[in-house]
Fold this sequence. Notes:
The protein is an all-alpha fold. The protein contains four helices and no strands. The chain has one domain (7-73). It has helices spanning 7-25, 28-34, 43-54, 56-73. The chain is elongated and about 40 Å long. Involved in the early part of the secretory pathway.
Amino acid sequence: MTNVYSFDGILVFGLLFICTCAYLKKVPRLNSWLLSEKKGVWGVFYKAAIIGTRLHIAVAASCLIMAFYIIFLK
């Protein structure tokens, strides 16, 4: 189990948040509802979705590395 208050937990949470927002950007109804704001608190979802779509190779590699780390090394 990964603790949220550790550095590992923060990295896992960040990666899952970015991956989830990038996935939600592909769903038309959720894209217009959740990712329409570009500023403020709701803008965090939009910015995470942009990071997930533009850096999809780096995000996917980071997810694989983090999964390997959690399963085998931790």
